[in-house]
Design a protein that fits this description.
Oligomer: single chain
Order of helices and strands: EHEHEEEEEEEH
Pfam families: ARD (PF03079)
Bound molecules: fe (ii) ion
Keywords: Amino-acid biosynthesis, Cytoplasm, Dioxygenase, Iron, Metal-binding, Methionine biosynthesis, Nickel, Nucleus, Oxidoreductase, Signal
Radius of gyration: 15 Å
Protein name: Acireductone dioxygenase (Fe(2+)-requiring)
Helix content: 10-25%
Structural class: alpha+beta
GO molecular function, one term: acireductone dioxygenase [iron(II)-requiring] activity
InterPro entries: ARD (IPR004313), RmlC-like_jellyroll (IPR014710), RmlC_Cupin_sf (IPR011051)
Largest sheet: 7 strands, mixed
């Protein structure tokens, strides 16, 4: 599995710009450590279960670090390392999961465009409208244009 390190591309200024321009309406915090999270082991297990959302999952890392895993066009995992100051936007319908790294701690802000919805739909979800939209726009669209997302 390939590991991509998110660079320090995003700063607080960017976050402010993003929240304003993307019309982010709300956000909440996930402070993922055993002392602060009820049912810590269960939450970790849920985060690591492959799933999709009906909306984008937008996360800004305030402290700590962890891995978001996403699938490439050939259904192979790509591991993305997110750490303090990084932001990640997962399109609606993309299969993904999350886990901690060796630091064993992360504080993530989730940003919502519109009403906050937390629902996870575990794989398989091929008939879910968000999954169908993702495949149409990103997977099939990339193949038609000859641009493929690949793990190396
Ligand atoms: Fe998710």
């Amino acid at each position: 599995m390939e590991i991509i390190v998110c660079g320090e591309l995003f700063t607080c200024k960017f976050l402010f710009w993003f929240m304003t321009c993307a019309k982010v309406h709300s956000g909440d915090l996930l402070d993922l450590c055993p002392e602060r999270v009820e049912n810590y082991e269960g939450k970790l297990k849920n985060f690591f279960t492959e799933h999709i959302h009906a909306d984008e999952e937008i996360r800004y890392c305030l402290e700590g670090s962890g891995y978001f895993d996403v699938r490439d066009d050939d259904d192979r995992w790509i591991r993305i390392w997110i750490k303090e100051g990084d932001m990640i936007v997962l399109p609606a319908g993309i299969y993904h999961r999350f886990t901690l790294d060796k630091g064993n701690y992360v504080k993530l802000m989730r940003l919502f465009i519109g009403e906050p919805v937390w629902t996870c739909y575990n794989r398989p979800q091929e008939d879910h409208p968000a999954r169908a939209g993702y495949v149409k726009n990103f997977v099939d669209g990339n193949k038609q244009q000859g641009v493929a997302l690949q793990a190396h």
